[in-house]
Design a protein that fits this description.
By secondary structure, the chain is mostly helical. The chain has two helices and no strands. It has one domain.
Length: 55
């Protein structure tokens, strides 16, 4: 579960950095947005899995 969270956040940060580099942004707007989106998606998956495992 921790590896899945880390991978989700990493993909968000990596994608945001690549998009910022491609668009030549001075401020890392997409890195910030995609990293926060990665955290939200990772937390959603953890909560969904936690609720599903309860008897």
């Amino acid at each position: 579960m921790a590896t899945q969270m880390a991978a989700t956040i990493f993909v968000g940060v990596w994608g945001g950095k690549k998009l910022d580099e491609y668009l030549k942004n001075e401020t890392p707007v997409f890195t910030l947005v995609f990293s926060l989106l990665g955290v939200v998606i990772a937390m959603y998956n953890v909560i969904k899995d936690f609720i599903k495992k309860k008897p």
